[in-house]
Each structure stands twice: as C-alpha cells, then as structure tokens.
Amino acid sequence: MEYETTYKNSGDIMAHVGSEPNVGALNDELRRAATDYGIGSRVNMVENTRYCRWEGQTDDGKKWSEKQTHGKQAFPWDGASDTRIPLADEVVNGLVDVCSTAFWRSMIRVSPQNVKGIDAAVTAHSLMDWAMNNRMYNDMTREVELLSQYLWTYGWAGAHISWQQEIGQKEQYVTVEQLMAIAAQSPQGSVLADLPNLLANPDATDQLAELIMAAFPNLKKRKALECVKDLREEGECEFPVPTMVKNAPSIAALAPYDELAFPPETTDIQSARVVFRRCYMTEVEVMQHVETDEWDEEWAKQAIATRGKFSNFSDYTYTIGLTNNALLDRENLIEVVYGYQKALDEDGVPGVFCTVFSPQVGGSWGKFELLDYEHGQYPFVVWRSEIIHRKIIESRGVPEVCMTWQNEIKAQRDSIFDYTSLNTIPPIQVPKTRGGNLRLGSAVQIPVLRPGEISFMQPPAREPSVAFNLIAAIETQVDRYFGRPTEKVPPAITQMRQQRVVNNWLHGWTEAFRQVLSLTLQYVGPEEIIRITGSTVPLSTNVQDFDVSLKFDVRELQSDLVTEKLKALST
Predict the structure, then answer these.
(1) Would strands 546-551 and 275-281 be described as parallel, antiparallel, or unpaired?
(2) How far is CA 532 from CA 134, 138, 473, 505, 538, in A?
C-alpha cells in the first residue's frame, strides 16, 4: 500500500514517499522505549514494593534458612518474623479511591467557543452524556479504576481512545413465500420477477445463487448454493449475515512500558516521535482482524506461528504473586504492536500513520494506513502522578516514594515480633555436657542432675514503645506527604493535596473526552444524533468549536459540607 506523502525530518523510523514502513527501525525504537533508563529494574522494584515480594519469602511470614538463596542462613534465627507491610498498597488504593470518586462525581461540561454556539453546545453535551452513560459505561467502570491503579503504581499511565466497530453474525431466514412476494412486486422483465422460474429450473442454480449473493454481499458461493438447494427441497433456508454488534467510542487503560511505550525523552505524548501500543491476541482475534480490518493474511499466519514467543523486553509481570517468580502466563497469545507515527504531507498538513507489526515476524507488517480520525492527534492520553520533570517517565509512583518508609516499618514490626518471642521463651542455658535435646512445652518434665543447671537466658533489655513510636512517626509522615485525612494532618493540607491530585486526574480525562467527542461527531450520523438528543440543531464535526471540561471540589468528600449544602438548598 502506498501513500503520496512527503516525510520531513523523519529519520530512519519513518517511511518515505511511496515507500513501505521500516519495521526494523520500529522494532529498534520499541526496544529502546521499553528498556532505556533501567526501566525493567524500575518496574520490578515498584511491583516488589507494592506487592511485598522479596527473595526467600515464605507463606507463613517467617524466615527459614532452607528458603534462602546462595546458602544464606535466616537472620536472626529460623522462624524469625518476616511480615509483609502493605504500606505502598494501602496508599495506592487510597489515592485510587479519591480519583475514582472524583471521576464519577465530577460534572462534564461541553461549552461553546462563543455565544452563537450555545444551542449546538447543548446538543453536543447531550451527545457526550449518551456516549459516557450509555455506550461506554460498562467499560468505564473497569477502565477508570485500572487506569488509576497503573498511575499511582508506576508514576504514569495512558489510555487509548478509539472508535470501535465490531461485526458479528446473525441468522437470516429466507422462505420461498418471501421470494414469491418479492417477485410479485418487481417490474415485469426484471431478474427478480423471474424468481419463480429460476427456482423451478434446475439448470439455473448458479444464476439463482448469484442473485442471492447480490442481495447479501458477504455470502460465499458455497453457502449460496446450499441455500438454493434448501429452498428447492425444504422451501426455506438460513445463513449467517454480518451485523454491527458494537459501534461506539472506547477508552482502554494501558499499562506503562508493556502496553504503552514511547521514546524515553518524550515530554508530551502528542509530540512523541512514535507511540507504541502492544496487544496480546488470540489466534481468532488475529484472523478476525484479517476479515474486518484488512490485515495481510500471510503476515497474520506468520504471526500466529509465533504464539507464545515475546520480546525479551516485555517480561514485566504485572501480577500479585507472593514470590518474585510469579509470571503472567501468555503462552497461548500472540504479540501484536501498533506503531503510530506523525508525518507531514507535501502541503505541511500533519497526519498520523499506523503500522501493525509483530517483533517476532521479521520485517513484514500486517497493515500500514493513514489514521482517519479528524482530530489529527495520536489516539492516546497520558496521566502523570507528579510533574517534577518535563520527561513523562520521570514521574514517580507511590512505591518509589515510600519504599524506605515501608522497609522501616517492616523492620520495627519484625523486631517487635522477635522481641516478644525472646521474652516469651528466651534461649536456654545448659551445661555443655547435656547437649541440645531438651523439649519445651506446657507440663513437660525436664530431668536435671543438680538444681539450677538449666535456666533461661536473660533477654536483652529493650523498650518496645520505641518501635511503636517510630512506626507512628513514619505513618504520620506518610499521611502528610500524600494528604491522607487523619487527625494528625491539618485539614487544609489534606484538602490542598487532594485537590491537586484531582485536578491533574481530571485534566487527563478532559483531554480524553475531547477526543471522544471528536470521534462521536465524526462517526455518529445526523439522523442518529437527532434520535439520541432530540435536537435538530446541526453539529459541526470540528471539535475545536467546543470546550470540554471536568471539575470536582474535594470538599464534597466531607460529609459535613454536603449536609450544609443540602440544608441551604432546602431553606
């Protein structure tokens, strides 16, 4: 497939005028996007911290020498405490609660660019409300929380915004009586008027099959011939016909580095040299894209043959296993990558080109096309947990920030457990000649040769309150840092920090819904818009005619403020 396009300052990664996409360069760029700056180690550290995973870990929360690596001995002794402290997990889930609540309670507004567009904006707002609360609602209940989990775990996350059209099948029934009725209503001399004769004539089988195929274009010749046979023998036939089962906007949360990657120097997703979306598909899904999206069939077969093989830089676990060898099982899936690139045509007009390829299938590709979305942007939006650097990947997740705090609390909790163990049953002092065959227990008799030869060792003097005080101090620091509402954090600080979190969160959704509105205006026809909104006001397909915004005041999370508002409304 060729495009009359001139690429300027594109480098090796871009295709040139009338040429093919450079899949080899795309593979190299994908590897760079997923491995530079120690990304793999960083992801593992983040996951191990949040999910409390480390080497030698056991299910009973204790240390055992037999589980240690490289012949190490359990310290300070076998059976010592090795408890899990899910501090990062607790903080992440708290922030997810704030973000999810803010999203579902926020008010989306579509406003005009000028006073003349008020009526159109009202109609566009109704259209957005239909898209969110009708077509997208079920998916959004999952994707909103998933996106927030990714964001606060890894420091940034992204979403893919697209218009999904899925074709399914339904059974079509045709009877001889229906065909006769069609023939009776058709003009004399037409092919349809001659249907009774075609049915009665055995030599007209091919002609009748062609006529059925003309009425149902997706019907294959073999199935059409079967239908002709059934009509003559049984007076009726049935066959599958394609039908639209989904025609709506879609937002999919993407895991950083694994499902979404871009060059590490990227500061804004819309100015990235290239953006990759990686998917893991079944064989059926790949072949379905051959039928519905015109993927190259030969390439699809080659991709299916690589099932279970993945790029060595895509081994991120994204699982919550108790040990660090818990891997995500993808042995029956196929790695497929969408590579999005922006380019300028000869008139300087930018466009987004998409290449479907698999890192496991040489230099060939499944499809190369110009994305037809009118907004002209990459179909992605990125959220950041903090803005401490222009580069997106510099944003830190919660586990990176509170890893040492979590370790400090764990150390104190383990020490308290071990101190209690020592005080409950201290080590026993015995003469060397008696050996170590003593068995302790309630009412157990221990024979002695002389009084006082067996005694408990005095445990080290230590005040457990020191550990408890340190734990409380660390928890207060965590609460203040992340703005968690506790009695030790001033409400003003909690409110400011939560409002900043919510503002950044909803800003990303504002960008996402601008793309959703643009796609809805592009793909929903005027007649359907009238049916949905009940308005006959014509809408422009240019999303620049409208402003989209989402706002939420974190003070509404306080029950006292809500009560006061309701009281004010009632009076």
Answers:
(1) unpaired
(2) 11, 19, 56, 29, 13
Inform me whether the pLDDT recorded for 539 exceeds 90: no
Cα end-to-end span (Å), the chain:
68
Place of tokens 């919510």: 502
pLDDT above 50: residue 496: yes
Q: What is the largest CA-CA distance in the chain?
A: 125
Looking from the CA of 129 toward its CB, the CA atoms found within 13 Å total 13
Q: Residue 467 half-sphere exposure, CB side, CA atoms within 13 Å?
A: 16
d(CA 358, CA 306): 9
- Global pTM value: 0.82
Which of these, 157, 145, 369, lies nearest to 255 by C-alpha position?
Answer: 157
Separation of CA 150 from chain center: 8
Task: Provide the CB-side half-sphere exposure for 545 (13 A, CA).
Answer: 19
Distance CA 358, CA 351 (A): 23
- Per DSSP, helices labelled H in 63-204 are 87-105, 118-130, 137-154, 176-185, 195-200
Position 326 scores a pLDDT of: 44
CA 10-11-14 angle, to 5 degrees, is: 60
Closest residue by Cα to residue 3 from 411, 16, 381: 16
Gyration radius from the chain CA atoms = 33
By CB atoms closer than 10 A (0-12, 13-18, 19+), residue 259 is buried
Higher pLDDT, 83 or 465: 83
* Contacts for 30 with CB less than 8 Å, ≥ 6 apart: 261, 276, 311, 313, 337, 339, 359
What single-letter DSSP state applies at residue 322? S
What is the arithmetic mean of pLDDT over 341-354?
Answer: 81
pLDDT digits (tens, 9 = 90+) for 165-213: 776 777 888 888 888 888 888 787 777 787 788 888 888 888 888 888 8
Q: Residue 515: helix, strand or coil by DSSP?
A: helix
- Residue whose tokens read 């790949």: 286
Q: How far apart are CA 272 and CA 262, in angstroms?
A: 7
Residues 367-422 pLDDT 10s: 999 898 999 899 999 999 999 999 999 999 999 999 999 999 999 999 999 888 88
Residue that wins the pLDDT comparison between 199 and 515: 515
CA distance 103 to 116: 30
What DSSP string describes 212-252?
Answer: HHHHSTT--HHHHHHHHHHHHHHSEEEEEEEEEEEEEEEEE
Concatenating the DSSP letter of every residue in 423-475 gives: HHS--EE--GGGTT-----TT-----SSTTSSEEPPPPP--HHHHHHHHHHHH
